[in-house]
Amino acid sequence: MIALDPSALALIARTPAVLRALLADLPTSIIEAPNDEGWSVKDIVGHLVDVEDIGFVERISRMLAETRPLIASIDPPARLDAGGYRRRGLADLLDTLERERALHAPWLMGLQPAQLARVGQHDSVGEISVGHVVHQWAAHDLTHLRQIALQLQSHLAPLMGRTRAFYDV
Fold first, then answer.
1. Angle ∠(134,39,81) on CA atoms, nearest 5
2. What is the value of pTM for the model shown?
3. Contact 46/93 with Cβ under 8 angstroms?
């Protein structure tokens, strides 16, 4: 039987509050500055809002309702533009993420072992289970929290003088 690591559920539930605390009152120039890949902090938050449904809730729901559904890859940059996330303000995106997580975290916590074992066939990685996707969701949040932290750190790096030598930015 598959069991969820409680830390994964806690991370999923806490991500919106962590983002809100980390990004509160930062100037627009920092929030909207692109990184080397062309993503701003606001873009990353918009991506988290977007994949909440298409990348996680929809995939899990399909695996629960269908027998071995085909799970298609998505194109995050294209979805960011098509979904209008770049036109929205950071506060609006954070509010949306917070509302969605308030619904989805308890839903995830209620999944039973038999549900966690249900599978789908991802078009690029093969068989995945509901449990895999829940753990991926937590890791995905952490990936983007790390990405945001590095962007904020990179903003501060030129202001650090010689103390910059203590960091790899």
1. 80
2. 0.95
3. yes
